[in-house]
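Section 5.1 Outputs to date
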Amino acid sequence: MTTGTPHIQPNGAKIAKTVLMPGDPLRAKYIAEHYLEDVVQFNEVRNMFGYTGTYKGKPVSVMGSGMGIPSIGIYSYELFNFFDVETIIRIGSCGALQENVNLYDIIIAQGASTNSNYVDQYHIPGHFAPLADFDLITQAKAKADEIGATTHVGNILSSDTFYNADESFNEPWTRMGILGVEMESAALYLNATAAGKKALGIFTVSDHLLRDESTTPEERQTSFTQMMEIALEIAE
């Protein structure tokens, strides 16, 4: 285990075996302040805040990933390979692509399709499907059912483009049953698989791309509560 990288400098602070990873570093700060006890900050490089504390007596870390596959690709790779992290649970928002998925529903990403070339580095002679850890999926679904959350388990899209010049871009993904769109999980799942580690993405639907519906920033703050509690409860 290294003492630091160009992007993560713990300065002696510990990083837990399980890391919750929202995109927004300020959301990482919010989780640390509202859910964890005995919190110590382990990273502030580039204002990508990371914290370690305890949740119901369990050591848990939380750190921002930034936006997009290149950003989470760096941070998750370093956590898995340089800091002995075993599990990363991505928590974030997504845009729904199916009519039976509604605002505030929770999507548990079994697989992460993508239009990114991130997988090319592995020189696989075919198409590799990045998948989440099955045990984490089943634990997350059980916890979601326990608290009464409306959930959907299936395939999501990790897109490299937020503003796409092709206005029909989402249509074939919808036909193929993609539940929602975000921008990071494929890289996280690939890094976890390559390192022999565990990963899962859990998302709150903040926008509906077929119905032009969206939540306000204030509503998102409230609606993210169930997702964060599910992730914290299954942290090992």
